[in-house]
Each structure stands twice: as structure tokens, then as C-alpha cells.
């Protein structure tokens, strides 16, 4: 089965939209999704940015919030602006890394996104993350401890460095097995199509048909 | 008939993709397109940017070129990176403003985009613009002269100021009659849907159906 890597950051609004729909879209396309948490902080710093571009360029940030609000509503999802934005997703990403090795990474990721963007909870709060782990049948204390092991911390760092080596500059980002990079929730369908066909030829005809 | 304002800048790669497909998409949606040339230079300057964000953030710029190349190929359009990028579209925008009052603005705009992104010509070159005007049955010298009248120059300046008052920060931008702003070629379908329905509710069901 063809595979698509889904690189996401917990602070990212558009990653939220993708996380909530990628499995259904991938199933329709016959593509397997590999969930890849990483951190945008170092990625932005590598571009000379001290925070999210949406904070640096407020007109763009304001439009992003309205855009996500419109799309979320049409998808039947809640959306509120996190305060502060962006949220600190470091602990959540460390946990997700473990969950993605086992079979609960995608469920955990969706639950964190809903806590953050639907319920307006602080995802840097370990109590919030513990609640989610508990609801997934995981032992919160044991998982939190594993997530903060030197090995796991180093792994998240390495995964973020891989993202930078792959020229990622934002999230969500999709990578096909033949190395094609697609950026943004609005490119998910193209990324899935490319994962199967190694081209976009026919993509728009398919839409019209 | 519902209308949608299509704000475009001649240097903008994604405006090219939109210009080549908006009339067909709008016809299918039953929406009238109003073509609005403006200048991104002052818009970027208002955000503290001295050039295109694609030049300031090279990773993003590199991805943009690949993204446009993939989409253009799938649309059956040529694409080459203009040199220099961005091109200076001032004269073309002044002419388009006149053409959009008459009945040749859209044809002129598409021809300029093809000259720039398909044929790799310099759109700041009046000879290139004259060729296009001639091919459209216009008198190049007369149009160029009108385009450089103080009144027409002031009008393009005013149109760009309007764009800034409407919080535009890039191109293409779509504005619905009820004041909803959509940014980017990838938002054209949503903008057309909103122009008719004043909501995105039902937009994704429509796609799946």
C-alpha cells in the first residue's frame, strides 16, 4: 500500500483541520498515513522567525483565524483561538511520538487538537494530557515518564531536524514516498493523489468528473 | 446575479493560476467575476516587507515554485520562473484597469500572465504589452497613453489603497458582496460558494457528493 507522511505540530491550526479528516481521505484514496509529530519552533527559528508568522504578520494571522473558523464550521468542528497562540505543544509531541509507535497516536493527536481548538484547554498542561491518555486506556503517569526520557526527547529533536533537512517550513506538511513535499491542509488531496500516481496529471479532471 | 471581486497582481504566480480558470469556475457557480488589478508592492510595504515574502523566506519560495509548477502542469498550462521575480507589473496593471472598464480586461490579463509565466517574457516591457494590445484589436499607442494619464495612475493608486483598507495582504484575493475575504487560488471554490450561499455550510458535502 502506498504511504503518505503527515507531519504536524500541535500548535498549528491547519494541522488540526487535517488531523480530523486525513484518515477518511486517505482511506478513500487507498493510501496509508504515517503520523509524524514535530516542532515548528526550531523550523521558524531557522527562517529567522521568533514566533508564528501569523503573529508576525497580523493581517495574515487574522485571515487565518477567519479561514479556519469558516472551514471548521463547514466540517462540523468547533474552533476557538487558543490563548496564548501559539500553544506550547512540546509535551504533547513527545507523547504523540510514543503513541505513533504503538496504536494510539492518531487518537491521541485528534483528542489533543480537540482539547486545544474546540474546548479551549491548555495543551501544555499535563493534567489535560493525562485526561486524554486516561480516556484512551493508557496509564498517564507511565506514558508521561516515558515521554520525558532522554531517549524520547532526543528522538523528537531528531524528528524535527529531519523535517528541516527535508526543507519543511510550516505545518501540516505531507511527504510522499518519492520525496514530493506538499504544504497545507488544502494540499491534502493533491498529496494523496501524488502518493498514488507520482503526478498531478488527471487530478483536476477527476474533480470535475 | 451574485458577483465576486477577483483582486490580482501581475507579478503573482497564484493569480496566474486563478486568472486562467476563474471564468469557467464562476460560470459553473452562476457568479459574475469583477476583475480588480492592484499592486502588491505597497501592500507588502505596509506589512514591513521590502519584496515578495517568497524572496524573504526562500524555503517557502522554493515550495511555491514547485507547487505552481505541479498545478500548472495538471491544468495544462506552462510555467517558468520569471527572471527577475517578482516582475514589475505596474504598466500592465494600469492598462488592465482600462480594459476592465471596457470588455477586454480579462483577455488582456490572461495574455499578460501567459507572456510572463508561460513564454517567459518581461511584462514591464512596453513592446510586450503593445503586442498583446494589438492582438486584442486595441490601438497600443492610444491605450498606453491613456494608461499613463494622471487620472488613471491615481485610479490604480486608489484601487490599491482600497485593497489595503479591505485588509488584503496578498494575491489573489476574493471579496464577496457581503464582505467576506478569501485569499489564494486554492480558495476560489470556497469564495464562489460563499458568494452564492453566504456560508460554507454544505461546501464539503457538495464535494463528496
Strand fraction of chain A equals 5-15%
Query: Pairing-aware structural class of the strands and helices of chain A?
Result: alpha+beta
Distance N terminus to C terminus of chain A? Answer: 25 Å
Largest sheet of chain A: 4 strands, mixed
Counting DSSP E segments of at least 2 residues, the number of strands of chain A comes to 4
The two chains with the largest interface, and their residue counts, are: A-B, 31 and 31 residues
Total domain count of chain A? 1
* Rg of chain A, Cα atoms, Å: 17 Å
Strand order of the largest sheet of chain A: 2-1-3-4
Full CATH superfamily name of chain A: Glutaredoxin
Helix and strand succession of chain A? EHHEHHHHHHHHEEHH
Helix content of chain A: 55-70%
CATH topology value of chain A: Glutaredoxin
Count of DSSP helices of chain A? 12
Active site (chains A, B): 12 (nucleophile)
Domain DSBA-like thioredoxin (chains A, B): 4-190
Catalytic activity (chains A, B): 2-hydroxychromene-2-carboxylate = (3E)-4-(2-hydroxyphenyl)-2-oxobut-3-enoate
Family (chains A, B): Belongs to the GST superfamily. NadH family.
Question: Can you give a write-up of this model?
Answer:
Two copies of one chain form a homodimer. Helices cover 57% and strands 10% of the residues of chain A. Chain A contains twelve helices and four strands. Chain A has a single domain, classed as Glutaredoxin (3-Layer(aba) Sandwich), CATH 3.40.30. The first copy, chain A, has a four-stranded mixed sheet with strand order 2-1-3-4, with helices on both faces. Chain A is of the alpha+beta class and 209 residues long. Chain A binds chain B through residues 47, 57, 59-60, 62-63, 66-67, 70-71, 73-75, 167-170, 181-184, 186-187, 190, 194, 199-204, and chain B through 47, 57, 59-60, 62-63, 66-67, 70-71, 73-75, 167-170, 181-184, 186-187, 190, 194, 199-204.
